[in-house]
Protein 1
Amino acid sequence: MNHGAPCLLVVDDDPAVAELICMTAADVGFSSSATDSVDFTTLGGHLDLIVLDLHMPGKDGVELIRDLALSRRGTAVFLVSGLGQRMLDTAAELAVAHGLRYMGAMRKPFAYEDLFESLLTVKGELSRPPPSPSSASDYIDVSELESAIERLEIEAAFQPIVSVATGQVVAAECLARWRHPKRGLLVPGRFIPLAERYGLISEVNWAVLSSAVGYLQASDPKRVVPLSVNFSAHDFTELELPDRLAGMLDSAGVQNELINIELTESSMIHDMPRTLDTMIRLRIKGVGLWLDDFGTGYSSMEQLRRLPISAMKLDISFMPKDSNWAASLALFQGLVDMARNVNLPMIAEGVETPRQLEMLRELGCERAQGYLFGRPMPPDVFRQWLDSRL
Ligand code: C2E
Ligand code: CA
Ligand code: CA
């Protein structure tokens, strides 16, 4: 713990600006110093806050944000830049994605009073404990995820999908889990955003698919249900996706019809010709294509009707809750009516209560997924669970 004045380092190549920041920080009560370049691997001593200029001749602010994250010093960041608000916003997002404690930003040129006020607020913030999601022990960096993919630590958890009419298990969704050697089993919220940001999402998706195929390969063909995996917009712009997938299934001796791919509505706007090409070829090969999170995107019925989709998943956020049943029921019913227009089977997500299941029955929604039937399960647990029901 630092008991004296909090320590601040200004990294800015403009000496006049650096001096103004140092002076203001000293007035606020920081112990401050300035430099035009810094190496976090060799920098000694405790540092509470770094005030970082984005645009510098040597290592720029973005590189320093990355270095700071890797150094795991727990130092908070305040950004300054003459490059405009948009750049500052993006850099701020980057700092947060790295798990850094982001404290705000200021556009150059700035007035003493404005900076004084901002730094005073930051000083107050620093005296409070950091919020838990970005605390040092929770922080995951991208190289850790990269090696996790190589070491096959990404696997699938299986959540059942049942027939509303009969209660029978008709399919299961494979959801990504990271079996982390130290942190335990991590849910997608902890690593999917990181994977998306650093171009690793495809590798995660293929890892989950591979785990799903492995499950099917190791199972008695009479005791399996079709499995669905989540793919991203980017995967669908890869024209070799259908062949790669079919090749993988073929070498495992698994039927193409046992795999469905879930694709979110909002992601389909990317590169329509390639996406359509991939979708059609997947369907020709017998792979199912499910529209995920239906209701959250902007597609018109016309657009949806033209896509080679085999089922629609109604987004979890529309599932009516006891707390505002009447109002949310009307909205949900509207969504079901829209989906019915497209003439495809519907899967409702997030079913937690018998009342919700009864409502689905009345509305004629065919399939349901949710905690009422089963939570996502590791492969062995799912196999036993399924055996007791098939
Ligand atoms: P999703 O595809 O909409 O998946 C459904 C999420 O809802 C899952 O969370 C599931 O555990 C949760 N869920 C299921 N039933 C219930 C319920 O009755 N109540 C509530 N409150 N939640 C329920 P999970 O596993 O944390 O996954 C979250 C999201 O992460 C997924 O949403 C999907 O968008 C993404 N994701 C998961 N696996 C992958 C993957 O392999 N690749 C990609 N690209 N995204 C993935
Ligand atoms: Ca999904
Ligand atoms: Ca969904």
Protein 2
Amino acid sequence: MTVERPRQDSNLRTRLRRPVLYPLSYWGVSTSIVAVGPPGPRPVGRRRALSSASVSSLAGTTADGDPSEGPPQRQLLPLTAEIGPAGSLSVGGCDLVELAERFGTPLFVYDEAHLRARCREAVAAWGDGVAYATKAFLCRAMAALAHEEGMALDVSTGGEMHVALAAGVPARRLVLHGNNKSPAELARAVELGVGRIVVDSFDEIERLGHLTADLRGADRPRVLVRVTPGIEAHTHEFVRTGHDDTKFGFPLATGAAARAVAVLAGQPGLDLVGIHAHIGSQVFEVSSFEQAADVLSGFFVPLDLPELCVGGGLGVAYVNGERAPTLADWAEATRRACWAAGVPRATRITAEPGRAIVATAAVTLYRVGVIKELPGVRTFVSVDGGMSDNPRPVLYGSGYEAFVPREAGALRPRVVRVVGKHCETGDTLVAEAHVPDDLAVGDVLATPVTGAYGYSMASNYNKVPRPPVLFVAEGRARVAVRGETFDDLLALDQPLG
Ligand code: LLP
């Protein structure tokens, strides 16, 4: 099933200006958003949309209801974000401008309470077995936090497995993924007794067969078969995985999935416990998940296995006006679709969200270094990070908001392009950022919703050191990952002897 849609672009403003070739509801966007329309006239004489007090009053709109010129909406900010009496934003009781002074910029600031709340929400929605997809953001502090809050951890490489284990997460709480797990990765997983291995290919079955030939009973690794349900989720093609033309899993359509199940059932050293599928990432439409659940169930029910994992992929709002389903909505809709398709109530139906756990928990702080006004063209605002700490705009055309934490409730009537410091024209962070009129060189500029796939995909392009990562809670800022130094850039570099 294919639905035509353009490349992922979370920037609602850009989207609304495009010819509408598709129903907006494909993104699960509510009709109230459709009514928003293009930016209206600029409000005059009001610099700040709200004077201070509670960030819950961040309606994110101007008086005339325009979401683009208003401050970032509450739903885009971490749970403990608060505007102080002077108008500046704090997270976890720490003032963001002060954090930028103290730790330097760029800086990732994660709200610990937010992370914990999301993990708890996931466990409440899905039950035991729900796994945090560590690819979204992983360091030892994050792995330990997710484990403490009752989540299992999905690791997709030996490296992610290593970090999770180093954080003290027991192997039995890990789910190992990957379309090309090496013999060494599989051997370590089997030896340590990881909780689940999600089998992705016939080659892998063969490798596992050799590794487990002598194992019996409870010593056998529990495995799930990853299948591709033939669904095209409504998301960017690079992060779509449920359709047939993908490197992941065994297609249902060709019979490969059924053959994989049969081959696995004949392996005495492996304990086949279930089926797994993941249709893609940043999926806004609950109906995509329902559709996948329905197709999967048709395959799953006759197998009479105890577990069904529907993967991750729940979308999150990145810009004003976007609305995403909650973890509870997603779980509820998926379970109902599975049950309606005949999956027994006793089946462990589970999932592995990544983005929905961490994305909104973090903001990235940058310092504005250059403002270049090109009359008749545009204004470029250069900050001290860029595509090395957030490659998502370049890779997927993803949209973000930008705001000035010293006055987080300020209106943002000025449209600029926020760019990084890399030697590349495409090094854009926010293509069409709305910022306050008085944005100046030296200001701290923040982008919200940068907790997922930012730090985890960060690079040292142009030998830019990776920024530090802070966890903030109750007025305390702790360094979860220290910032790289110039010397770190030489740490692996070997003079040729
Ligand atoms: N499970 C599997 C098997 C996955 O492949 C993924 C993501 C997840 C779970 C978690 O998906 P989430 O809940 O985070 O959407 N770099 C891209 C996203 C790539 C996702 C890859 N797999 C981005 O920045 O949007």
Protein 3
Amino acid sequence: EQVIRLEDYRPTDFLIHEVDLLVCLFEGRAEVRAALTVERRPGSPEAASLSLDGDELTLTSLALDGERLPEGSYEVSPEALTLHGLPASGRFTLSIGTTLEPEKNTKLMGLYRTRGVWCTQCEAEGFRRITYFLDRPDVLATYRVRIEAPRAAAPVLLANGNPVESGPLEGGRHFALWHDPHPKPSYLFALVAGDLDVLKDDFTTAGGRKVDLAIYTEKGLSARSVYAMDALKRSMAWDERRFGREYDLDVFNIVAVSDFNMGAMENKGLNVFNHKYVLLDPDTATDGDYAGVETVIAHEYFHNWTGNRITCRDWFQLCLKEGLTVYRDQEFTADERSRAVKRIASVQLLKSQQFPEDQGPLQHPVRPTRYREINNFYTATVYDKGAELVRMIATILGPERFRAGMDLYFERHDGEAATIEDFLLCFEEAGGRSLERFRLWYAQAGTPTLSVRETYADGRLTLSLSQRLARGAAGTGTEPMHMPVRFGLVGSNGADMEAVPRAEGAKAEDGIIHLLEEKGEVVFEGLPERPLVSILRDFSAPVTLDFPQSREDRLALARLDPDAFGRWRALADLVGETLADAGRTGFSPADAAPVLQAVAAGAADEALEPSLRAQMAALPGEGEIARLVGQDVDPGRVHRARIAAMAELGRIGGESFARLLAEGAGEPFSPAPDSVGRRALRNTILAFVSLAAGDASRAERQFAGATNMTDRLAALAVLAHHFPREAATRKALERFHDTYAGDDLVLDKWFMLQASAAHEDALADVERLAAHPAFKLANPNRARALIGGFASANPLAFHRPDGAGYRFVARMLTELDRLNPQTAARLATAFRSWRSLEPGRRELAAQTLRAIAQGKQISRDLKDIVDRSLQ
Ligand code: HT7
Ligand code: ZN
């Protein structure tokens, strides 16, 4: 099996300057004619052949400057079209004809058809499924695209860039011509043709360019894209304000489709979205969906500069665009909503998704150095840890110098395919600070442990810090890295103390300790009292914190820390440790009481914004608790411990929770942050209170009376998860299904909710759902709802001690793999933490993984994940 290595990177021997594409769409087939303006790169060998990538293509014609190429001057293999004896200098035109069958393309890469709509997905290597090409990100060309299609099936014809011309053709067909003046790599190519509804608007940039905005959806759904349009306009304005980045075409089009492998795609001027991240209204979408739409709309828009104008030299540099763009979308949400709430949500995501990846067999550095299948590297490490690294650069340099570094990056590399080295150099130059110890973060995989010890006597506080990185599955280095550690010293009055530190082996300035070596020490003198040490504020480095701070100090910080993130972290760490203990040895109400009381107090604290109260109230998920348990995890015990803690919390919250529930009932829906926060708080509490009382009636009432999907689904979740056998639950599930039977996005929720319901009959339920007429394995959202809901969100059932949960998932993945390897591979990562299970389950999981690996027709995507999981 071929391994691609960073060290083997070489520029191409040929440049492609222009691409002229004619795409003719017919029922059942597409014909593509590409005219490529090519030139041998000055200095490259005259004898070098040109090897163009191809995948599942049928070559129908081939010409050089209009002359058919003779036999023997080219070869065609399943992966390439290789041309020999091409001109030594000057530009020449290669004309290539191919045919494809979009209707049969279930991989959803290249040109495919979804609900009658033709659309493309080219990242990472999909363009080679449309025509033969140098399908790699460092080959930048301008594109002119003519689409011809039947007008009835496809009145809307879209491609990248600006529209040039359109008109009728014979036989009920028509055409549209598009031109994108910005040189781009092939992975940003897109076209869409279909019968779509549209929502239109416009935006005028700071420089005075009027941009026509349009969001295309399947028929009858455009009223649901109003919020997405609003999010788009806010994103455009924010990028101008915060980063000085303006949009650069006359149109910006978004198309929402039903069948899509990921969330969305940032194709130049023509973003294609999974409709889950566009379509919303209060009756069908939850507050979480609203947040998701806002984030993904912003993320794809921000790629216009970080990804499109400046792209990646090769796929090893993926974090250059993805980590940076996640950082930018996180900052957007922080500015638009609440900084503390957004930071907590990002840290929760990092810990629940990236930490297990970084601590298990799928570990890889933020910039990997080898891969077998690039699609498997769109990971939490590249995206979310990648964003943390950008955040650390901003922390190290401070806001002004960080902005200067970004400005230099945009100025210096606009129109180029860049590397992480290029990026870091901009910050070193503009920031005037060496990032030598920092750049190791990109190369060294794993979550470092930051140990902190404090001693205090006579007004003198000493903080001793040390860092350690264990070598993991990736086998990368373990050198000390530059760790910015934000901190505060909190007095008993709840205010930060002013204290000037002295440091050795570390630097301390502006509330940040810079740990550059393995060990460092910081001393504060003349303190009026022993402070509460609020460490790693803002989660300023993605580390595991080892700080044996007393429970009393942490409970005090959870009440007093003037930094909202610090309050949450102190409490969340205590809750995590308490539940990890319970997951090892069983839940003890007496041991947990002080911590759960603090949780209830956080939930009730009216000085905090509602979303933050909801975050203070939420308990970590079972996956996160299992990670904290560490070794020999029994997922059944973890589940029982968490449920017991929820019920106990409901008892402790008592009257105060009942009041919160009663006060909010009937609040009208609004997507504004405070309203969202109040719903989140009430719905978190609803589960606690219902469990404490062993009574489903509150949830039943909420379900029946809900005026929005957030409250309706939260109530249904309480019923399905905690009262699975009650007749009321069955009736509610049926009613939900019947009400929304024609709505795919809501039906996904119905599948997901049941797949993730932890109870003894869960596997039988999921098997039944897999045979439900509305279950479609070929639709990624539906497959993710059922298989992902079960394998990743239902640890109790997935990890059944008899291994039947594993075997069910293996069967489904093997079937899915034949249709859509990329989605199958992604879902298979649910097995990634199998080594930390107790021995019985560990062996069964390993057996299942080995059985998948031995499957006769296994794809490269799935095999790569399974092999690496087993290594
Ligand atoms: N850059 C996009 C990644 C993506 C993708 C990758 C592989 C296969 C299908 C895909 N669809 C989208 C999304 C993003 O990060 O913005
Ligand atoms: Zn992205």
